[in-house]
């Protein structure tokens, strides 16, 4: 069953190539299993890396989306997470550092019939590729971005990243990092991203749920996935993973549900005096004061306020879908402009070459 | 006033009984110079259009500052437009103007040195106020102190006559004054017998939403024309007969226009959708503007957030089966280098258009140079060969764009197309081709739809044995899923490989693929009328015109020179080394410090003599003729007189 509405194939040689392969192989295969998305390539992440868990989660839930493997393209940049495409039996491009959103934009804009994904890390998308990320988000190109955030540079062996906490001691910051970190969710919401979610690598159910909503979203979807680097930043998310502290410091986001969390729902989210949000003790406020999560608000300010509840040390971290709103996608609008132009004017090459001002020399 | 000049061929009577004579000329070079705000480029373009539709051969050289509006009346704000037109075929915008129109003291000061003695100088006398003179450091008014005696100076109150003509137009003084360029155009149109209907139509079209402005401009234009006809200041008008051209339909075209149309045609002739990812940059932005108008042809244009995203988006589009293109200038190529190398590695079609400008760094944004050749050849990490081609004239940008597409598609490779600022903004008459006669590129596309491996698998790096191109299988095609990337590929499978032998093999194979393109390009074309020249001159890109004009002069003096002009800079035509070795001496003029010369010397061990200039302007034909003459004379030992015609083309 297809839950993702991919566009119609285009006309011309591209449509011909697709039709030709379908003709030789029968109808598009969408009844797939997790193993159908695996490749013959040996997965080469460090043993115990959070990336394995994410790969498995993605391969397991993809069949339920009903997308044929050939209609999926995964574009990545550089970094540990960016090896992801090699392990997925779809089309893929392991590109250059930071540029995956730009490559995916060109692909998605010219091929609205594809499901285009970007896999990136915190260094790739927020440092060297920060510009491309924010512009993809503001344009609302139809791509799904999985941002693996391990808060460290792993592939270059352990320097601080743009999400590392202030004071982080690494090989390049022996006296502690001076940089204030990005909160990727806040950044994305600042760019008015239409879909922003956050999930934990080890939380298969929560991760799958956010990924599914991201995949079904029309427009740019950003999912920040907290991912443990057991070599260079082990335990970075233990506060949220530990069964006891996790309940205490995570705020589960469920659309339409009050924002109540903590052991026995002892804490909640209420509005503060200056238009933002704050944490309160549930028994100290009236039930109607507790904010009911609404991911569909047009104004990103509410989702942004949610994202600001958490601190660098991960206390009060909302998990789930912050924002999911509908806006026209870039690729659809671009296709529409082409349709309008084709309807209004003719594609007559000879007329174009001649232009408005010609003269003729007779023989 | 009665003319006694023997060249006078006809007389005509203007209203008021004034007898005007008509002198026939074979060619003329006019330079219009004024403030950036005076509309000199527009005036020049209109005069060019009139001249083109009249049937003269022509060549133009716009020259303007990078600042949009430098302070009024200052030297940095001077903008000029030079037009050379003739009754025969010409190759350059002319070394020096015969006529200089200076709209203010700054324009006079900046351009007078280029006007040969005796040349016609027309100035707007209204602008020669003490304030304007002081701005550019004139202690005395040159119109009054006798310093212009060496030229035929005609001081015309262009501004006040324009105001007078528009006294009843209802426009304010400031607005009416802006039409003085059209008054000037009218005067020149009379002087050179240009057709005027095109300009009237143009003004009506341009200002269709502001009919009063259109009317004012047309009135000023006509007033200028009528002034020419009635004034005693100009006793002579000039006739330059149409140039004989091959039968056919012609238009005037600039390099950026021709390049854009070539890209549209490449899309149409390959059947592929075109995707242009670009970031605005001088002097390439006009290609982005032009292509964004042609969405009806299925062309997608994407103004990216930066140069890198421009090329990256084009690579993404190519992966999806489009013809990906990015357009830029030198600084943009620097930023795109890593992504271009990715395209080298993943072997996808990509066209990178570099409209070169003066460098390094920001350099001279609006001036021409051809100093990105070595950057194009080598400006990437690792062994990252790619084809490089260059157009030779504005109209040739069209053919070069189609050739770039042919190579990119056939060989699945990024191609760098090196235009430059002179080609981009200069224009010439162009024989409009029929779309159906253009190269058919559909054969170069051929998406892979069937597995090619022995076990029914798809091997994305199993190459075409002839072209060494890899298969292009696009997303959406079932059973052909594959991964590409910047890491080294295993031969055949394209899987990641760190194997030493494989890397050595793949590096050599990528080089061999590019080298092999030489098999698909024509042999070196040598222009040597007698076939026994001992000196050859070799060039590339926009120097074709000046070198060609220089060769004509040299040949008219009885000397012999062979001209070779390269379209393909990587790979070179297969026979190039052998051809160069036939000559005693080889001269290579370039608007850089000898980049092609370096390549030729390295590759063929031929003692190429480099002649260079980097003034941000094209070579002067006379300069090149003198260089060639010296080389020829020192080779033959004989001394001949210089060109007896004194520099006609």
UniProtKB/TrEMBL annotation, chain A:
One of its GO terms (biological process) is cellular respiration. Keywords: Oxidoreductase. InterPro entries: 2-oxoacid:Fd_oxidoreductase, THDP-binding, TPP_enzyme_TPP-bd. GO terms for molecular function: magnesium ion binding; oxidoreductase activity, acting on the aldehyde or oxo group of donors, iron-sulfur protein as acceptor; thiamine pyrophosphate binding. The keyword Oxidoreductase applies. Residues 78-225 form the Thiamine pyrophosphate enzyme TPP-binding domain. Gene3D superfamilies: 3.40.50.970. The keyword Ion transport does not apply. This is 2-oxoglutarate ferredoxin oxidoreductase subunit beta. It comes from Trujillonella endophytica.
From TrEMBL, chain B:
Residues 37-226 form the Pyruvate/ketoisovalerate oxidoreductase catalytic domain. InterPro entries: 2-oxoacid/accept_OxRdtase_asu, Pyruvate:ferred/Flavod_OxRd, Pyrv/ketoisovalerate_OxRed_cat, Pyrv_Fd/Flavodoxin_OxRdtase_N, Pyrv_flavodox_OxRed_cen, THDP-binding, Transketo_C/PFOR_II. It holds the Pfam family POR_N. One of its GO terms (molecular function) is oxidoreductase activity, acting on the aldehyde or oxo group of donors. Keywords: Oxidoreductase. GO terms for biological process: response to oxidative stress. Residues 274-491 form the Pyruvate flavodoxin/ferredoxin oxidoreductase pyrimidine binding domain. NCBIfam families: OAFO_sf (TIGR03710). This is 2-oxoglutarate ferredoxin oxidoreductase subunit alpha.
